[in-house]
């Protein structure tokens, strides 16, 4: 009885190994079974090679932008959109909920300081504006004067 169980167990192992080998070799067989028509002749002279290269470049110039655009639109953009959506829902919203009240308090504190500094900057600009406008006007007059001299 003991011998029979060992034989059955070994038979199961052998069957498993053979199945794995067959399944592993099937893709190779499918690849080798494909009949790929080859209608490409290798160039015999340098001129033919040059002509072939120029034709390939022309085709590349015409079709490459469309190919890149399609790859970008169909493959790259969806991946980045999925990553953005995931990070927005799983990271950003959680951080926003966690830190939201602290950030709002800080915004209120800094808002007053920013408003004060903005008013000071406005006053400085009002004081400096006439001088800047005079410099710009003088520059324009000099340019026009030099252009008049060149036209004569």
Give a verbal description of the structure:
With 152 residues, the chain is an all-alpha fold. Among the domains are: 31 residues; 54 residues. It contains 2 helices and no strands. The termini are far apart. The model has no long low-confidence stretch (mean pLDDT 82).
> How many helices?
2
Give a quick account of the main beta sheet: strands, pairing sense, barrel closure.
Answer: none
Structural class: mainly alpha
Multimerization status: single chain
Helix content class: over 70%
Shape: flat
Key descriptive features of the protein:
mainly alpha, single chain, 152 residues
Describe the SSE topology.
Blueprint: H1 2-33, H2 46-151
Summarize the structure in short:
The protein has 152 residues and is mainly alpha-helical. 91% of the residues lie in helices and 0% in strands.
